[in-house]
Write a structure and sequence with these properties.
Chain lengths: 493, 493
């Protein structure tokens, strides 16, 4: 007698799985046709959803129809070739299929034993990447180091900070708690993940120094050196520096070599966050961004930003895996197993904050094999070339100016008419649906950012973006002139 | 002129996407045929992988063939109906397709504005679940509370602990760092995630009290009360209790109501971790597990364990969202946007450790709609019924004994022949490939655990498991008797 089942049968799974594959292919084919930034109002989706869940199951076709009807209007299209906002979170066919396969296998990679392939493929692919990016060999798992996939660079920063906290206190903070003496350092341009990590790890915001930057928005080693000296004199214990290769605001590249020498001198942990830019080092001509990396204790970059691997996939390496493992390891009875006790394997739960983990290396493996080094390099070079071309147009237009150097694929720029004008310009552009840009502040001035990194962004999309920017700026100037004119003609004037 | 592209074309994506869908359907159809626990040796997969990544891209068919050839032997089949180890991490067709769709859309849900549907669907589905599980209404987003999807219960515990740390210090720890006075409490059976969180958050292991348990392995409120009193007298600041509804070892259920009253009395934050068991509350007859939950400040359960939603998906609620948000919020310029500033929306980055986040509510929505309450309840009841039946068989067999009450779908048991025998029995069973069990220690004795929670586990799988357990135990006894016999016949005896 067959048991009652509400599960989707294998045949239904085949049918609806293929429907979802077709849906995604179709979505990506027509993605240009959507306004990039969703224009729904707060609460709009919730108002359209039933207040109570269904008592009985519904046909899958009806659910999929609701994706079109209800979900799509509330989507900001990160995969649109006209998405130039924030940093990209690009994806690709092989990555999506890797994620799908990982979901289908449904294994846990928390321990080597809970699915050896999940751990070993991850270690292997991260060793591959050390070579692909020409990272220092100390990060190899075959040396004292090793790599692990984290969800995000925020988590990588937190893990690095925790390992630094423990190493600098002889692993006593884990036992006794932090004591308000430890100090961490970044620059005023360092990602806010550092501040969040400093709070989470119990150091406290007052023990974070965000030192000054130079005219290129890169950390000033002299400012760092003074901050460290001052803290030492005050009885503090400097333990951690986060240097950035490609800041979020302007893609500034901190002088890692000089910072690294200071860290060595003071016995501090140096973490290098190359979340966005690391991918560029696939190409030999961009490897200068990693100068000094041999002095780092840890490093991360995000294939989920620019290497065609869908979120989440941050690759994080340490030079001394023992320090990280000792910081994060706990071993209850129910996780004991012969492989762990043999000491011959990595248990990645000890390399991260959570316990459970997906088989994320599958998608990374798929991407690297599908593209090969050649394919990856081609598209990265193309993105950089398009951004550089855009920067040239900005520089040549006397209405606009570059707000920062554009070393790779991010261009920071502004119209010459001031903050309010640039804010209004940004709002008009984003409301148009033609493209999506975000802003930052550089030298306290409102600045537009255009980052070229979406999988399907081609020359024409960047050309159109520039066209729209100039057109909206002209329209805004005209309407401003018009307002001034009308005001000057008004009765009270 | 078309640009050079190494990307997978939409048509290739359709072709290979359907191949992966067929692969998964075929895998799940024949999953019984694999040994549940992988028997590869450490290093085996790595030795089979090329030492260097490919210079040029490879055909997708070759990659997929390598999944069969290289990856499958290293897989421990968590989705096998014969997987009874740890806690399950079950999945289902609609969940896998939800994950696929989320990967295809590739949006970031860090802010409401970065894809409003991702935030609103999540809030909505978590409000649905408050009703589905009959949780206290204070957890609704329409009150002062609200729910959010975390990756794991470990992260939920950490977030709860951080909010507790801040609330109890008037949000000063975030500013000044922790000071070694704060104390957190669990029981000796609480998940090791609490210890990890206490270390990460800077409280230190010495400020964690794991109080004693009763004969059912549930936290003793009197022991908790004494521990709190003692800490107060010593000038410590008790701030957090983690109570468990369904411990990992034995599914013990802490007396939340009594613990909650102590927390109220001392102004402490009560977090309730129902990672495994929460799902049972879909069925009215199991809702007794949540008695006292109205006194909790936060609560979590994992649809990725027992609610047919593939990992990762931990649902976490707080009664006072302001405390959580104030704890975890940082707002740099590049994340500012009108929606955030209006105060009308949730930005889920402020409810979690990382910044970025996937559109995980899609899969949860798909699961709830596909099964309906009726379908979910049916399968949960069936799992509990099968576990209870297994417990009856154990209780009726004079070679075996139950090691703990089996309130829901986990049975802790042991053979009467002692620790070494049980360890040998476990090793034989797991080496056979017929099933996968893990162990724990209860009353210091080696104990086997059998948890019924895999999507496709049916009566016959549990019957076979019991058959194998008895058969291997008999074989082990016979070989032990044989060894004793041979030793007594030996020349030296």
């Amino acid at each position: 007698m067959p048991e009652t089942s509400y599960h989707m049968s294998p045949d239904e799974f085949r049918r609806w799985g293929k429907a979802v594959i077709d849906w995604i292919a179709g979505y990506l084919e027509r993605i240009d046709s959507f306004p990039v930034l969703s224009s729904v109002e707060p609460g709009q989706l919730r108002a359209a959803l039933p207040p109570a869940p269904p008592a009985e199951g519904e046909p899958f076709g009806r659910i999929l129809a609701d994706v079109d009807k209800l979900i799509l209007p509330g989507i900001t299209h990160w995969q649109s070739p006209n998405f130039f906002a924030f940093f990209p979170a690009n994806a690709s066919g092989p990555a999506i299929l890797g994620e799908l396969l990982a979901a289908g296998l449904g294994v846990q990679g928390m321990l080597w034993a809970t699915s050896p392939a999940a751990t070993e493929l991850e270690t292997h692919v991260l060793d591959w990447l050390v070579g692909m990016l020409a990272l220092p060999e100390k990060f190899l798992s075959t040396r004292e180091g090793g790599g692990v996939i984290q969800d995000t660079a925020s988590s990588a920063t937190l893990c690095a900070l925790l390992a630094a906290r423990e190493r600098s206190t002889g692993f006593a903070s884990n036992r006794r708690g932090t004591d308000g003496r430890l100090v961490a350092y970044g620059s005023s341009e360092t990602h806010s993940a550092l501040l969040k990590a400093v709070k989470i790890a119990g150091l406290g915001e007052e023990n974070l120094r965000l030192v000054g930057v130079d005219e290129r928005f890169a950390m000033r080693p002299d400012a760092l050196a003074s901050a460290i000296e001052q803290d030492r004199r005050a009885g503090k214990m400097p333990c951690f520096v986060c240097a950035t290769v490609g800041t979020t605001s302007s893609q500034a590249i901190d002088p890692v070599a000089e910072i690294g020498r200071l860290c060595q001198q003071h016995g501090m942990w140096l973490h290098v966050d190359a979340a966005m830019c690391g991918t560029a080092a696939l190409c030999p001509e961009f490897r200068w961004i990693h100068q000094g990396l041999e002095l780092a204790d840890s490093y991360c970059f995000n294939p989920h930003k620019w290497m065609f691997t869908n979120f989440d996939c941050d690759c994080f390496w340490v030079a001394d895996r023992k320090a990280l493992i000792r910081t994060l390891s706990v071993l209850p009875e129910y996780l004991r197993n012969p492989a762990t006790e043999s000491g011959k394997v990595f248990d990645y739960r000890d390399w991260q904050i959570p316990l459970g983990r997906r088989f994320r290396s599958l998608k990374l493996w798929f991407v690297i094999r599908h593209y090969g080094l050649e394919g990856l390099r081609h598209h990265i070079r193309e993105h950089v070339r398009l951004a550089q071309e855009f920067a040239t147009w900005v520089a040549q237009d006397d209405q606009f100016e570059l707000a920062a150097p554009a070393p790779l694929n991010l261009v920071c720029f502004r119209h010459c008419a001031g903050d309010a004008f640039n804010q209004a310009l940004l709002d008009r552009l984003n409301a148009s649906g033609n493209l999506y840009l975000t802003q930052t502040r550089l030298d306290r001035r409102f600045t537009l950012r255009l980052c070229v990194g979406q999988t399907h962004t081609q020359a024409r999309h960047v050309e159109q973006a520039w066209h729209h920017i100039r057109k909206e700026a002209a329209a805004l100037q005209a309407s401003a002139a018009d307002r001034i004119l009308r005001r000057s003609e008004g009765p009270g004037d």
